[in-house]
Specification:
2 strands, 5 helices, mainly alpha, about 5% strand, about 140 residues
């Protein structure tokens, strides 16, 4: 039977990393989404967008690594991790965390993608979507 500390790390640590990564990717897409344009000028992604994107991806990738490390440690000590409820909860969170992991990777790609407007302030792609006539940049 695995120890109580192993069950805590497996049952709470792995799901917490999955949820933290998902929360950071949501924060990137909602609260920080307006950081790139100010008064029709493209400033690029802010530092907090970079931090949220990379930290979310790091949490999403650390969750399966923590699960594998804890599982190997349990097997090395002669415990049966398959019989514990904490291992089942962690595995379910890892399976459900695959889709957020894709969103986290997409968030990193978005932060490093070029300007969608072509760098011409409001006369680019985002201004054309609003059906407004472009103005000369400068």
């Amino acid at each position: 039977m695995p120890s109580l500390s192993w069950s805590r790390w497996t049952g709470f640590g792995v799901p917490a990393l999955v949820l933290l990564g998902f929360g950071l990717s949501l924060l990137l897409g909602t609260a920080f989404a307006s950081d790139t344009f100010h008064d029709c000028h493209y400033f690029g992604p802010s530092l907090r967008m970079h931090i949220a994107a990379w930290a979310g991806l790091a949490c999403g990738l650390a969750a399966p690594l923590l699960y594998v490390a804890l599982r190997r440690g349990a097997v090395r000590r002669g415990w049966s991790p398959d019989a514990s409820r904490a291992s089942g909860i962690a595995l379910a969170c890892l399976v459900l965390g695959l889709l957020p992991l894709l969103f986290e990777a997409f968030g990193v790609w978005v932060v490093h993608a070029p300007d969608p407007a072509g760098g011409n302030d409001c006369s680019g792609l985002s201004y054309a979507r609003a059906a407004a006539p472009p103005y000369p940049a400068g």
